[in-house]
Structures are given as structure tokens and as C-alpha cells.
């Protein structure tokens, strides 16, 4: 069970700014085993996603992952519902994790 504490809330706010630096995440072909499994599962569920980023933040042991998804498929959904969809897709993988951080975004559509 995940619990938000003052420390985790501070980490969360710190990680939001770090999330914008996700551009250093390797491309899909260089993802490691666990990262690749998560990526492929999410790509299958969210085929219209503009961006899916997975990062092992456990130091390489595959126990904690950070997930970022940007897709218009979240339009009209609360953040809680968006995160529930992701945890439902990854429920089998989450069983073997120590933790997961989920960040979602609805991309701005350019109407030209």
C-alpha cells in the first residue's frame, strides 16, 4: 500500500520538475527488461500516446519504476482515473515491485 507522507509529498513535487528532464531517458530499443515490459504493456493499452517513458529508479534492480504517459486518451478523466487505468494495465508487474511513481499528462492539441 502506498502512503503519502510529508517526505513523499516533497519528493513528488521535486520529481515533477525532474520529470521535465526525462529527455535523457533512453529510446525504446535501449530499455532494459523490466522497463521494456512496462513500456510494451502501456503502448498496447494506449496506442495514441504521444509519449511513454519508463525509468528504473531503484538503482538498476527493477524494484521501483517511474512511469510517464502523455496521451489524449486521458481527456475528460480525473488524475485518479488516469492512474487507475495505468495500475490496472500493470497490475501483474506491480505485484513484484517495491513501488511505482506515475505521472500523466494530456498533451495540448495544436489546431492549425
Notes on the structure:
With 112 residues, this protein is α+β, with helices and mostly antiparallel strands. Helix content is 38%, strand content 18%. It is built from four helices and three strands. The protein has helices at 6-19, 33-45, 79-89, 91-94, and strands at 51-56, 64-70, 99-105. A three-stranded mixed beta sheet has the order 1-2-3, covered by helices on one side. The longest helix is centred in the N-terminal third of the chain and has 14 residues, at 6-19. Belongs to the BolA/IbaG family. InterPro entries: BolA, BolA-like_sf, Mt_Fe-S_assembly_factor.
Structural class: alpha+beta
Order of helical and strand elements: HHEEHHE
| Proportion of beta-strand residues | 15-25%
Task: Indicate the percent of residues in helices.
Answer: 25-40%
**Radius of gyration over alpha carbons?**
14 Å
Please mark out the parts with pLDDT under 50 across 5 or more consecutive residues, or reply none.
1-30
Strand order of the largest sheet: 1-2-3
- According to DSSP, the number of beta strands is 3
Task: Profile the largest sheet.
Answer: 3 strands, mixed
Shape: globular
Arithmetic mean of pLDDT: 78
Gap between N and C termini: 45 Å
Total helices: the number is 4
Organism: Macrosiphum euphorbiae
Pfam families: BolA
Family: Belongs to the BolA/IbaG family.
Protein name: BolA-like protein 3
What is the element layout, followed by pairings?
Layout: H1 6-19, H2 33-45, E1 51-56, E2 64-70, H3 79-89, H4 91-94, E3 99-105
Parallel strand pairs: 2-3
Antiparallel strand pairs: 1-2
Amino acid at each position: 500500500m502506498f502512503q503519502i507522507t510529508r517526505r513523499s509529498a516533497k519528493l513528488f513535487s521535486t520529481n515533477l520538475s525532474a520529470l521535465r528532464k526525462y529527455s535523457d531517458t533512453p529510446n525504446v530499443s535501449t530499455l532494459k527488461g523490466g522497463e521494456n515490459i512496462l513500456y510494451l504493456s502501456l503502448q498496447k493499452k494506449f496506442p495514441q500516446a504521444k509519449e511513454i517513458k519508463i525509468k528504473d529508479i531503484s538503482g538498476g534492480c527493477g524494484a521501483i519504476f517511474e512511469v510517464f504517459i502523455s496521451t489524449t486518451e486521458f481527456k475528460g478523466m480525473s488524475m485518479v482515473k488516469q492512474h487507475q487505468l495505468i495500475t490496472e494495465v500493470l497490475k501483474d508487474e506491480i505485484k513484484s515491485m517495491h513501488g511505482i511513481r506515475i505521472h500523466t499528462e494530456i498533451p495540448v492539441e495544436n489546431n492549425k
